[in-house]
Amino acid sequence: MINPIPPFAVYIIGALLIPFIRNSAAKRAFLLLIPVVSFINLINIPMGSHFIVPFLDFQLIFAKIDKLSLIFGYIFHLVTVIAVIYALHVKDNLQHVAAYIYGGSALGVTFAGDLFSLFVFWELLTIGSVFLIWTNRTQQSLNAGFRYALYHIVGGLVLLSGILMYVHSTGSIEFKEIGLQEGNLATYLIFIGFGINCAWPILHPWVTDAYPESTITGIIFLSAFTTKTAVYALARAYPGTSILIWIGAAMACFAMVYAVIENDLRRVLSYSLINQVGFMVVGIGIGTNLAMNGAISHAVNDILFKALLFMSIGAVMYRTGKSRCTDLGGLYRTMPLTCIFCIIGAASISGFPLFSAFVSKSMIISAAGQGGMVLLWFLLMFASTGVLEHAGIKVPFFAFFSHDSGLRPQEAPSNMLIAMGIAAFFCIFIGTFPGPLYSLLPYPVEYHPYTMTHVVTTTILLLFASLAFVFLLFAGVYPPEMRAINLDADWFWRKGSNLVVNVVTAVAGSIAKGLDHVFIKTLPVKLAAFSRRPISGMMKEYKNINVTTGPLPETNSMLMPAGVPVLISVAFILILALVFLL
Amino acid sequence: MEGKKYFFDKPENLKRFFRIFYGILAVLVIIDVAFPLIFGHKHADFAWESWPGFYAVFGFVAFVILVFGAKYILRPLAKRREDYYD
User: Fold this and answer.
1) CA distance A133 to A147
2) Domain span at A259
3) Is residue A155 located within the same domain as residue A293?
4) What pTM, to 2 d.p., does this model score?
5) What residues of B are in the A interface, CB distance below 8 Å?
6) Same domain for A553 and A452
7) Do A292 and A317 fall into the same domain?
8) Do A372 and A318 share a structural domain?
9) Mutation test of the interface with chain B: which of A461, A466, A473, A488, choosing the one with the most B Cβ atoms within 10 A?
10) pLDDT digit string, tens, across residues A156-176
11) Would you put residue A327 in left (φ > 0), alpha (ψ -120 to 50) or beta?
12) How far apart are the CA of B82 and the nearest CA of chain A, in angstroms?
């Protein structure tokens, strides 16, 4: 038996080896082998802290294996397999390398036992993911990638300053429960650093701005890793922090209103991602065993059904080159399998009985109910209806049904169908037999999703909400799809940054213009004239002022040798320049 | 391919689909009203959850509120031309 290596290492080493494999069949085999080997490696690491490396006065821990980190480790491997199968046709090495660096850093964060290695992997996440956006190689993806990178670099700095202050005040770099402490700024900075990756409201625009610009295959990785590692980090460090309840409820409720009117289906799903992470954040905020288990199992399920939904829309985009509701419609005719997979994903995210969200989201709502939180309960129920609207109905309906766009694309390629099939299988399997998932959850709790009350009430809620859709559609009041974008919080930094640039250019421009006028246009001319005929020049000025004194004779005797005035003027300019610079 | 009729191109299939959908809704209403008789007490955290019709009305109304909120409040505020940022 070979000794295991740190959990992130197989991905990172694999990523670096990809460019050296020339044969395309061998490369595909290698791409699939990486997560399998990594998974075998992971299950061979026993529970506890391993791979401890001394660093300065501290210890870096590269594998802190407990039930909380393990379940995230498992699902990250599963989704890698799915996403890699989906991306097998991609020839671009850079995309594969970026995906594995990204996945490896997600594993690095998940199993980091100390804050320093956590931070390093946190930054590596940004680097891996931004290449999945840039490799789409459009002007939009380039710009969005830069905005995305800037956002995460700022987030990383907030996290780093929090970590440094925290380590300074506690003397420990262990990554464990931190919790918000009154008057301890460090705990708040780390909290916000996690929150940026978790797409909290106002801090969220990087998701909806950049994800829809990424590659068709890259977005599957993106939807799985960044936000879920942030959920993991919050679950580890801030369980039961009550402000998270309201942050999560806001995420769940505001994002879906945007999703209703958004035209680009990949952007609809990005809003949906925020909405679903909102449920998880609420669960972490409630912090009871039931709520924490709900948040974690919902993260697992969300990775699967969100990947499935993104894959089905990605397949449509692969075949048609389009992802907007206004351009699509009626594709069930020639892409029936993709359509079925999309509907399975939609049913899973909506939480229909036998589909995965039914067994996880309900834990969070039950936890709110058991805590007697009336307002929260109503918000979550409202958000559940909203999920049905934008992800459960809108995505499959406008892509595959609705008006006939006249497009008759081929069915998705076989590797994409296999990937969607695997994800769909797990969505239904977990939804129907939640036992195996529950056995992996970190907190001890008895929960039975399949009670008669739960099945009946959920079905009624969802189907009568669907009835509302039918009514609105037939009555002609359902908002028509429009070719338009919707302003979001990113307006402040996309237009705001323009404003800053404009103000700075205006101010700096007028200063520069003034300087230009004085130093380039007026002064040299005057100096030149002065140096040519210093005395007569002065006399001329004098003459101008005292016109009455009459003309003075201009003689050549008044001219100085050429070198002296040049020297004077250069010295004068130097002194002025010095004054200006100082 | 041009003249080929697909499943929902035939009006009778669409009609059948909606008939089944409304049928399921009707059955659900009956189950909901008769719930205490068939399965006994509903396990609920709040009193209103046991009211017959609560979930049906809530689902319907919440859906309409969301769609109207998005259409009549958010869209007028947020909608811009696609090249707004370019």
Assistant:
1) 11
2) 239-478
3) no
4) 0.86
5) 1, 6-8, 18, 21, 24-25, 28, 31-32, 35, 39, 42-46, 49, 55-67, 69-71, 74-75, 77-82, 84-85
6) no
7) yes
8) yes
9) A461
10) 999 999 999 999 999 889 999
11) alpha
12) 5
